[in-house]
Design a protein that fits this description.
The protein is mainly α. Helix content is about 80%, strand content about 0%. The chain has one domain (about 1-165). It has 8 helices and no strands.
Length: about 170
C-alpha cells in the first residue's frame, strides 16, 4: 500500500499543475485576505458599515490571522481541491494509464485508496503555505501600522490548520 502511495505522491509532485494550483491558492489567500482589505483600509473605504477603519485593521492583525485565512478555504479552496482531484485521476484516465494501473496493480480499492491518501498528504503543504503567507502578511501590516503583534496560541494555529485541511 505504501508503495502505491509513494508512487502517487511522486506523480503529484512532478506535475506542474499541482504547483500552479499551490501558487494560485496562496495568491488568492493573500489577495482576498490582506491585499484588498489593506488597500481599502489605506484608501479610507469601508467594507461594511461606517466606522473609522479600525475594525478593518484589527481583522488583518496577527491576533485574527486564523479567522482571516480560514474564511477563504471554503470560498476558493474547494474549487482548487476539486481541480487537484481532477488532475490526479482525470489525467490518468485521459492518457489511458489508469487502465494499465488497474490491470497490473493489486486492486481497484487499493489504487484509489492510495490516490486519496496521496491527495490528502499533498493538501498539507497547501494549508501550511496559506497560513504562513497569512502570518507574514499580518506581521508586515502590524509592523507598518505600529500595531501590537499578539499571536494566537500554537495549539489554536495547529487546530485551525487541521480544520483547514479537513475543509
Amino acid at each position: 500500500m505504501w508503495g502505491s502511495v509513494s508512487a502517487e505522491l511522486l506523480l503529484l509532485r512532478k506535475r506542474v499543475g499541482v504547483w500552479v494550483l499551490l501558487g494560485i491558492w496562496v495568491l488568492l489567500a493573500l489577495i482576498f485576505g490582506y491585499v484588498f482589505p489593506y488597500i481599502t483600509y489605506v484608501s479610507g473605504g469601508t467594507f461594511a458599515g461606517p466606522d473609522d477603519g479600525q475594525s478593518q485593521l484589527v481583522d488583518m492583525l496577527p491576533a485574527t490571522v486564523i479567522d482571516n485565512v480560514i474564511v477563504g478555504f471554503p470560498f476558493f479552496g474547494g474549487a482548487l481541491v476539486l481541480m487537484l482531484g481532477v488532475l490526479a485521476v482525470g489525467s490518468e484516465y485521459g492518457w489511458g494509464t489508469l487502465k494499465t494501473i488497474l490491470t497490473q496493480r493489486p486492486g481497484r480499492g487499493r489504487v484509489f485508496a492510495a490516490k486519496l491518501l496521496a491527495l490528502g498528504l499533498v493538501l498539507v503543504p497547501f494549508v501550511v503555505f496559506a497560513f504562513a503567507t497569512a502570518a507574514v502578511s499580518s506581521a508586515l501590516i502590524a509592523w507598518r501600522e505600529g500595531a501590537a503583534m499578539d499571536w494566537p496560541s500554537v495549539a489554536a494555529i495547529v487546530e485551525a490548520m487541521a480544520a483547514g485541511w479537513f475543509v
